[in-house]
Specification:
Layout (H helix, E strand, L loop, with lengths): L1 E3 L5 H9 L5 E5 L2 H14 L4 E5 L14 E7 L17 H10 E11 L2 H12 L7 E5 L13 H9 L4 E7 L1
Parallel strand pairs: 1-2, 1-4, 2-3, 4-5
Antiparallel strand pairs: 5-7, 6-7
């Protein structure tokens, strides 16, 4: 499992505890959060999780092809200002890297509370060539989103009544 932009690690740590037979790697741009997460992992004796201080803008070449079952890209930094949209990590190149590291049929889970981010992500997924693409699936039943735990941002949105979307894309 790969959690891109794992933030404070709540989702990643809950996933590791719920599924001890699965390894999960969190990538996070903020080094202080990575240190904190790894301190928690060590302190709690969690053996199937680790966080790495890393920017996905540098690529995912260190991850072997077809080695990841699930990727979580949940509530990414939206870079909301129009002049900053180009800084968003969700690009065609990024999607091609995700396609490469996912096993066939592997899932890319997505969640956002920003309509513009949702629209951009769906557009970019749909515009990929068929052989390097994904099939978007809406979350309609609990089995489509089989996690009983939530991200910090998801909990925040629920408390404040902020709408958000969750869906996944299966690798072709």
């Amino acid at each position: 499992m790969l959690d891109i932009g794992c933030g404070r690690g709540g989702f990643m740590l809950q996933h590791a505890l719920t599924y001890p037979e699965q390894n999960i790697l969190g990538l996070e741009l903020r080094g202080t959060l990575v240190e904190w997460i790894n301190d928690v992992i060590e302190g709690e004796g969690i053996t199937n999780a680790r966080a790495v201080w890393y920017s996905v803008a540098n690529g995912l070449d260190f991850i072997p092809s077809a080695s990841i079952d699930h990727i979580f890209y949940l509530f990414p930094d939206p870079w909301p200002k129009k002049r900053h949209v180009k800084r968003r990590a969700f690009t065609d190149s990024f999607l091609e890297q995700l396609h490469r590291v996912l096993v066939p049929g592997g899932r890319l889970y997505l969640a956002t509370d920003r309509a513009d981010v949702d629209q951009q992500q769906r557009y970019q997924i749909a515009s990929l060539p068929h052989e390097r693409g994904f099939d978007i699936r809406e979350v309609q039943e609990p089995a489509d989103w089989p996690f009983d735990f939530k991200t910090d941002q998801q909990l925040f949105c629920e408390r404040k009544g902020i709408p958000f979307v969750t869906y996944y894309a299966s690798r072709r």
